[in-house]
Amino acid sequence: MGIAREVFGGALPVAERYAAFLADAGVERGLIGPREVDRLWERHLINCAVVSEVIPADARVVDIGSGAGLPGIVLAIVRPDLRITLLEPLLRRTNFLNECVEMLDLPNVEVRRGRAEDVADEFSVDVVTARAVAPLERLVGWALPLLRPGGELLALKGERAAAELEEAADVLERFGARTTELLQVGQGMVDPPTTLVRVVAGRGGVVGRRQRAPRRAKRSRKRSS
Fold first, then answer.
1. Per residue in 142-186, pLDDT tens?
2. Do you know which SUPFAM superfamilies this protein is assigned to (predicted)?
3. What structural domains and CATH numbers belong to the chain?
C-alpha cells in the first residue's frame, strides 16, 4: 500500500472504499472478474491513477465505456480538479456508477447513459479516456468527435499499442488527428508501466505513418484533495 499512498495521497481512504465496492458489488454484478480481486490495486486502480500525470489541470474529461469506473472514477478520486463524465451505454453499469459516485461523494463526476457516437454534438472536451473498450481503429471514430481542437484522446493500451496505432493510420487521417504518440506513465509505480496512445485532435490535420517510440512522461505534482 506504500505506492497506493504515494499515488492517491490524502484521497487514499476514498480509493480504499472504491476498491472494497469493486471487490464486492463489482464482482457480484459481473463488472470485475473474481480473479481480479487480489490484484485490484496494481492492475486496476494504480494503473489508472497514473494516467493523471499527463492530464492538464481543470480539464473536462469524458470516459468512454466507463464500465466499472476505470479509469474515470479513479481519476476523479486522485484529481478533484477534473470534471468528468462517465459515458456508458448499459443500464446496469450506469446504475453501478451512480452508486459509486454517491457513495464516494464525488461532486466532480456525472454519469451519462449513452454511446459516444450518439452524443458527439453535445461535447467539446479537453480529454477523452478509454480502457479496454475497442481497438484504436474504432475508438478514434468515437472519441475524436467529442474533443475540442487540440483536445486529447488518452487510450490505455497493452502490448499491441504500437500495432494498433499503425493499423488506425487511415482512420486517424480521416478524422483529422493532429499528432499521435505512445506514452508510458507510472514508471516505478506499476510494472509494467501503463501504456497510453495519445491522439491530439485537429481540423483537417494529416497523421504521418511513422510514429515516435514510447517515451516516459514527466510526473506532475498532484493536487491535494
1. 999 999 999 999 999 998 999 999 999 999 999 999 999 999 999
2. S-adenosyl-L-methionine-dependent methyltransferases
3. 2-216 (3.40.50.150)
Tell whether 65 is in a known binding site.
yes
Where would I find the H helices in the chain? 2-8, 12-21, 27-28, 46-49, 72-78, 91-104, 116-119, 136-143, 161-167, 169-174
Phi and psi of 43, rounded to 5°?
-80, -25
What is the pTM for the complete model shown? 0.88
pLDDT tens, position by position, 53-88? 999 999 999 999 999 999 999 999 999 999 999 999
Yes or no: say if 222 and 52 are a contact pair by the CB < 8 Å rule.
Answer: yes
Eight-class DSSP state of 93: H
User: ∠104-110-114 over CA atoms, to 5°?
Assistant: 130
Q: Which residue carries 454484478 as its cell? A: 29
Strands 215-216 and 177-185: what pairing?
Answer: parallel
Q: Is 131 annotated as a binding residue?
A: yes
Determine whether the annotation assigns residue 202 to a binding site.
no
Distance from C-alpha of 90 to C-alpha of 135, rounded to nearest angstrom: 19
Tell whether residue 116 is among the known ligand binding residues: yes
70 marked as binding residue = yes
